[in-house]
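Read as amino acids, tokens; as here:

___
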Amino acid sequence: MIMFRIGHTLALSCLMIAGTAATLNAQERVAITSATNRLIISQVGNGITTTPWITVLVTPYDTSSGGDKALIVQTSSITGIFSADIRLSQFTLLLENAGIQARVLIDCAPPTCVSTSNTVPANTLATPGVITLDQAFHFLLQVDSGSFNVALDETAGARSFNFYKVGISKSHNHTVQFQVRFKADAFSTANGPILDAVAAGIGKRTMIVDMVKLNQED
């Protein structure tokens, strides 16, 4: 059994903008939002399940005192990847993969921007765009005399990532959305009974939006 895992933790202290360094001054105003409900998707048996983009946190933000400033969007969440298989066979080949992608949208509104779509206008997408928040891959190749086997895998923890957006216009009515998209797929083949399942989920989460002034440095 082989399990690969990809996770991200990033602390943002400076930005590289148009080839120059930009340091961040002290915060001026902060918006904080959080949620505790759980969202879980699963795939049982062979197949692929992919969700549209789901807004898991949203907050308004006032940049009316803006000008040569940027938004820093700090996101954190509890995520989990789960897999299970039950088999009674002499030969088993099993592949399971599950992951959670994330992005931040700013002022995405129809008809020009549809928040559930994979493609959104570039000016609504916070940098660095779509990231992999959590992912796990489960591979099993078994050849033996045949026996009853049950395997369960679970990995979970707190994941964080910082997004940013420069060139924010002065406005009282910006909308910031933290979104995730789930994917779970499974493939198995065996010369006996087998049941496999994989799932991905997100639980408690927080988003902090801050506006900072950019000081360009040579």
